[in-house]
Amino acid sequence: MSSFRTWVKRIGIGLAIGSLGASLVVSPAHAATAYTTAAVTLRAGTSTGTTALATVPSGVAINVQCQAKGQSISGTYNSDWWAKVTYAGRTGYLSRAYVRVPAGTSVPTCGTTSTGSPTVVGGQVNLRSGTNTGTTLLATIPVGTRLNIQCQAKGQAIAGTYNSDWWAKVTYAGRTGYASRAYIRVPAGVNVPTCSGSTNPGQSVVGGQISRAEVISRARDWVNRRVPYSMYANTHDRNGRLYRTDCSGFVSMALHLSGSPSTVTLTSYGVHWIPKSSMLPGDLIGNLGPGTGGAAGHVVIFNGWVDSSQTRFYALEQRGGAGAVSSVHTWGASFWSHNAWRYNKIV
Fold first, then answer.
1. Are residues 174 and 218 in the same domain?
2. Got the DSSP string for 118-167?
3. pLDDT, tens digit, for every residue of 76-126?
């Protein structure tokens, strides 16, 4: 009897749809360019500080109109891209940390037409000679200052009004430098170009001195290339030199070492312990030394604290099952995350 009722119900639904004729448009699932990986908030702008318009449930097929840079979010993925979509009649932005775009799908950048100028928000921001807090302080830009951003470059991740590892190149009080975008509001729709050459800062040699910015840039090269993890394989760096594709090989590549030591032998390449309080982007977090071989050891590149509590940190790492990734971890929460280290030749 239950199967008969189900059959009747399906027939009824089919008749109801047929009676609507051309007024009903059914969009096939493949028409969507992306899917939500978890419930995600649709917002008026590209940060969590903007107005919430709706909540899009997990697994919803969406058409991404374009994407824009904004607050860096750690979710299913780590991303500072926000997808412009229309959902439930409202158009806004979803963090791409929770949006899966099928491989091969090209998402255009949102247009550059907008109103307003980039503005310092949430507090004053320091203008520096480079893209991390270890570089020279040139000036302090007051809150509310309107800026003309010449371009932007990747650097130290900063937690401020927003979470961002982008640094804006600006001129203020006659001095040109970089200000963290964690304190700069860029109107939705403004496309900020990437600074020329920002993907390859520094000119280190194998086993020589290396800047913190170059360590981060070299690590990001494998992350951007999505190098898979293996304790037995090797992959070239951007200069063609081969390094092992496990956690310590990744760190060796980022530091531009002459070899690919393991977590057991990395300290013999000039890596020494430092207190947590002195850490800067480009330093290391991990367990190193005797007894840390294979699965018993892990090491990552430190890329800044999530906030002033110095509890959670941004990392660049080569991780089993994930490959080269940008991630967020909690200090002391894992067997490897209790100790900080520094390369002797980092400058």
1. no
2. -EE-SS-EEEESSSSTTSPEEEEEPTT-B----EEEEEEEEESSSEEEEE
3. 888 888 888 999 988 889 999 999 887 767 777 775 434 457 888 777 899
Contact 105, 96 (CB under 8 A): no
- How far apart CA 306 and CA 277 sit, in angstroms, is 14
How many domains are contained in the chain?
A: 3
Q: Do 220 and 297 have their domain in common?
A: yes
DSSP 110: P
pLDDT band of 190, cuts 50, 70, 90: confident
State the pTM of this model. Answer: 0.50
One domain for residues 241 and 320: yes
Contact predicate 69/186, CB 8 Å = yes
Instruction: Give the pLDDT score at 311.
Output: 94
β-pair partners for 317: 325
Give the DSSP letter string of 127-138: EESSSSTTSPEE
Does the pLDDT value for residue 305 go beyond 80? yes
**How far apart are alpha carbons 11 and 159 in whole angstroms?**
57
Same domain, yes or no: 38 and 154: no
3-state helix, strand, coil in the chain (%, to 5): 20, 35, 45
Q: What CATH number is associated with residue 150?
A: 2.30.30.40
The string of pLDDT tens digits covering residues 141-159 is: 998 888 889 898 888 878 7
The domain containing residue 55 runs over which residues?
Answer: 29-100
Q: Which of 52, 67, 100 is the last residue of a domain?
A: 100
236 and 287 within one domain:
yes
- What local confidence, expressed as pLDDT, does residue 189 receive? 64
Please indicate, yes or no, if residue 14 is contained in any of the structural domains.
Answer: no
Q: What does the alpha-carbon distance between residue 332 and residue 339 come to, in Å, rounded to a whole number?
A: 8
Domain contains 266:
yes
Q: Based on the domain organization, do 228 and 338 belong to the same domain? A: yes
Give the count of beta carbons closer than 10 Å to the beta carbon of residue 191: 14
| Phi-psi sector, 104: left (phi>0), alpha (psi -120 to 50), beta | left
The pLDDT of residue 333 is 96
- Closest by CA to 334, choosing from 347, 324, 346, 319, is 319
